[in-house]
Design goal:
The protein is mainly β and about 110 residues long. Helix content is about 0%, strand content about 55%. The protein contains no helices and eleven strands. A hairpin with a 6-residue loop joins β4 and β5.
Length: about 110
């Protein structure tokens, strides 16, 4: 199993920045990709960004050029740097890891005020 602990959410004004962190523990050797989904009230969960073991990245069109995902293999941690935040980025952000199973973090609230 993989355990994921997220941190870094909060309240920020539009145009501001936040950095989310997700630390993995447990069967980390089996992880092939990690990343972030988000879910706004009344909406489906959507993929925000992901990074593979080989460092290939993927982003939702809505965050390209504003968000950057990175990983520190020594710390088993993935980061999501979010710049130029918009009110529509407001959501609960969930870290995930993918191996034979998908594991989820507990979620962290990001609120962007206009």
């Amino acid at each position: 199993q993989v355990q994921l602990v997220e941190s870094g959410g909060g309240l920020v004004q539009a145009g501001g920045s936040l950095r989310l962190s997700c630390a993995a523990s447990g069967s980390i050797f089996s992880i092939v990709a990690m990343g972030w989904y988000r879910q706004a009230p009344g909406q489906q969960r959507e993929l925000v960004a992901s990074v593979t073991r080989g460092a290939s990245t993927n982003y939702a069109d809505s965050v390209k050029g504003r968000f950057t995902i990175s990983r520190d293999n020594a710390k088993n941690t993935v980061y999501l740097q979010m710049n130029t935040l918009k009110p529509e980025d407001t959501a609960v952000y969930y870290c995930f890891s993918k191996s034979g199973t998908v594991y989820w973090g507990q979620g962290t609230q990001v609120t962007v005020s206009s």
